[in-house]
């Protein structure tokens, strides 16, 4: 599967666009739409490069979700790609969220698992709380939002 435009917009909304590098709450240099791989102090990029980096970074999250073994509809896929994009593929693959999804846990339990991943350096971050809520809502949405 590939991320839909709705999924891309969700990621863009929560990552925000920053054309100058910055330290995220976890202390990692970030630029564009949450790009970390080549981000460094003092770096500036164009909007076009930010879009290109987003599309490249999406591929890692898509591979992680596609290889997870979970049977997903498009909204579920998009929600999990956003989650994996934000946390990283390794964290996604080992997450309690993925384990519960594969066990066909209840909606309440899966929503709870989304809500657990809202901390940076042990501190709950309002932006992550909002993101996890939006991801969970998309995951359980039957229609395009």
List the helices and strands and how they pair.
Layout: H1 5-15, E1 18-23, E2 29-32, H2 47-66, H3 74-87, H4 89-93, H5 96-102, H6 107-115, E3 119-120, E4 123-124, H7 126-139
Antiparallel strand pairs: 1-2, 3-4
Helix pairs in contact: 1-3, 2-3, 3-7, 5-6, 6-7
Question: Care to describe what's here?
Answer:
By secondary structure, this protein is mainly alpha-helical. The protein is built from seven helices and four strands, in the order αββαααααββα. The protein has one domain (5-139): Lysozyme, CATH 1.10.530. The chain is globular.
Characteristics of this structure?
145 residues, mainly alpha, two-stranded antiparallel sheet, two-stranded antiparallel ribbon, 10% strand
TL;DR?
With 145 residues, this protein is mostly helical. The protein contains seven helices and four strands. Helix 1 runs parallel beside helix 3 and helix 2 crosses helix 3.
Query: Strand sequence of the main sheet, in spatial order?
Result: 1-2
Quaternary organization: single chain
Q: H/E element string?
A: HEEHHHHHEEH
Q: How many beta strands in the DSSP annotation?
A: 4
Radius of gyration, Cα only, in angstroms?
15 Å
- Biggest sheet details: 2 strands, antiparallel
Percent of residues in helices:
55-70%
Q: Name the shape in a single word.
A: globular
Number of helices, where a helix is a run of at least 4 consecutive DSSP H or I residues? 7
What's the N-to-C terminus distance?
Answer: 19 Å
Name the CATH architecture: Orthogonal Bundle
Low-confidence stretches: none
């Amino acid at each position: 599967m590939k991320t839909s435009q709705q999924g891309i917009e969700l990621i863009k909304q929560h990552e925000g666009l920053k054309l100058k590098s910055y330290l995220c709450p976890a202390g990692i240099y970030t630029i564009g739409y949450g790009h970390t791989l080549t981000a460094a102090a003092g770096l500036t990029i164009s909007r076009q490069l930010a879009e290109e980096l987003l599309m490249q970074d999406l591929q890692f999250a898509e591979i992680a979700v596609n290889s997870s073994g979970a049977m997903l509809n498009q909204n579920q896929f998009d929600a999990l790609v956003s989650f994996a994009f934000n946390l990283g593929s390794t964290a996604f693959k080992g997450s309690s969220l993925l384990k519960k999804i594969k066990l066909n846990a209840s909606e309440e339990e899966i929503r709870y698992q989304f809500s657990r991943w809202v901390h940076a350096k042990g501190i709950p971050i309002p932006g992550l709380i909002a993101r996890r809520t939006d991801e969970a809502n998309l995951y359980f949405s039957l229609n395009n939002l």
